[in-house]
Structures are given as structure tokens and as C-alpha cells.
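Appendix B. Chain record.
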Amino acid sequence: MSEQVTPAVQETAEPAKAKSAAAGVGKKILGYGVGLAVVAGGGLAWQYLSGDLAIAKVGDCVNNFTVVDDAKVVDCASADAANKVVGVIDGVSESDFDAKQQTLCEAYPTWEQIVWIGKKGGNGDSWCLEPIKK
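C-alpha cells predicted for this chain:
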């Protein structure tokens, strides 16, 4: 009779191992998903905390800069605030920006400076800026 019991025990042990393996794979997938979300969230948080110009929107203020890499979003009440974003034009190619930068911000009559951020030879966004009168 012990021969009959042994196969039954083995049959019940195999599905338990399969369940355990499936649970392990599920936990790994969940772990990778959470890790990816943390990394992506951290990158977005870094943009906001560092004042990256790529996060600027109409109404935001930026510091005084001479090179786009030095441009930062700052509090409009801060002493560093030099310009206010009055318009954002998405999807402007570098060549269109070079050719039309004097006309891209015509819809924003108070603009005095325009900035383009994008991939060299590709598309990017243009920010129309007006000076902050202090």
C-alpha cells in the first residue's frame, strides 16, 4: 500500500512547486515594475527640483542665462527671476527655429527672447519669454 501513497504524495507536491515557481516569477515582475516606476518618478522629480527648462510652462519664470544649459525655472518672486514664459511652441524643428525665430513668437506681443530646446537636427520646443520688470 505504501506504493500507492507515494505517487499521491508526489502528485500533490508537484503542483505546489509549480504554484511556488509562478508566485516567484510574479513577485519578480512586480519588483521590476516597482523599480522602474521609482526610477521614472525620480527622473521626473529631478527635472522639477533642478528647475530644468524642459518643464517650463506658460506663467513660469526663468533665471537670467546666456547659455540654454544654464536656464532654470525659478520662483517668480525670487531675485533670480529674469524672464517669464508667455508662450510655448511645441514641435519646432531646429531649422525652422533658425529660420523663423523672429516670427515664431508673434502671437505673444510682450516677448523679447526666444529659446529652443531640442535634439540637434531634430525637433524641439520654443519658449517665448518676456522680461520681468522689477
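Further analysis of this model is presented in Appendix C.
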